[in-house]
Amino acid sequence: MTKIAPSILSADFAQLKKEIMEVDRAGADYIHVDVMDGHFVPNITIGPVVVKAIRPITTLPLDVHLMIEEPDHYIEAFAEAGADIITVHVETCPHLHRTIHAIKEKGVKAGVVINPATPKELLYPILPDVDLVLFMTVNPGFGGQKFITNVIEKIKQVDEWRRAFAPHVLFEVDGGINEKTAKQCIDAGVDILVAGSAIFNQTDRKQAIETIRKAAE
Ligand SMILES: O=C(CO)[C@H](O)[C@H](O)COP(=O)(O)O
Ligand SMILES: [Fe+2]
């Protein structure tokens, strides 16, 4: 079954506990946490203190998406705060193999994220080492942007590598996911759909999650 990861970037931050509890009860599979530093992306969001604060609110895995430069400096802090998955951008990691293994050494699942305009070849050498690949389907930095369709072709091509030598790797997409775009992603081989505005901008979160899940299947 398709897994859904609501992105709290589009939640009401003044009521974060209530928002997380609501999507948890509504059938979410992960909680997606967007960490932005104002350097790698033109926005600033949250850090390890917030991850620590939300950790007791839910038993769902916390999927922490690091959109920050030099992520190596923060792996320990996010792991100790309670992250279950930490994903780092290929664009921010000159020593990607070292970074991925530093995450794993903390007992956390390790994922690599790739921007829409970054060539898929950067994934090839690291694919057997990661637990997850997150394909950005918008340029990272903000919620509510339009899905970039040509990423689908990249997902299909990387899926061929996955089938050949890394079948354990999960594929996740992030950005512009809604009932219209979900199906194309699943058909291309995606396992986990991140959705922010398509869930948190709806008053009935249960229905929003079910709508995306149904459209995907
Ligand atoms: O990483 C992100 C942005 O950089 C967010 O996870 C993503 O944008 C989710 O928001 P939406 O579903 O509204 O596009
Ligand atoms: Fe994200």
UniProtKB/TrEMBL annotation:
> An example of a Gene Ontology BP annotation on this entry?
pentose catabolic process
Cofactor list: Zn(2+); a divalent metal cation; Fe(2+); Co(2+)
Task: Name the protein family.
Answer: Belongs to the ribulose-phosphate 3-epimerase family.
| Top-tier EC class | isomerase
Q: Does the keyword Zinc apply?
A: yes
- Could you tell me what this protein is called? Ribulose-phosphate 3-epimerase
UniProt cross-references to SUPFAM superfamilies, sorted A to Z = Ribulose-phoshate binding barrel
Ligand binding (a divalent metal cation): H32, D34, H65, D174
Supply the EC number(s): 5.1.3.1
Q: Which Gene3D superfamilies does the record associate with it? A: Aldolase class I
Q: How is the cofactor bound?
A: Binds 1 divalent metal cation per subunit.
Q: Per its database record, what is this protein's job? A: Catalyzes the reversible epimerization of D-ribulose 5-phosphate to D-xylulose 5-phosphate.
| HAMAP family in the record | RPE
What the entry lists under Pfam families is as follows:
Ribul_P_3_epim
Note the superkingdom of the native organism.
Bacteria
Listed PANTHER family: RIBULOSE-5-PHOSPHATE-3-EPIMERASE (PTHR11749)
The GO molecular function terms of this record are: D-ribulose-phosphate 3-epimerase activity; metal ion binding
- Catalysis: reaction(s): D-ribulose 5-phosphate = D-xylulose 5-phosphate
Source organism? Paraliobacillus ryukyuensis
Q: What are the positions of the active site?
A: D34, D174
Keywords on this record?
Carbohydrate metabolism, Cobalt, Isomerase, Manganese, Metal-binding, Zinc
- Give the record's pathway: Carbohydrate degradation
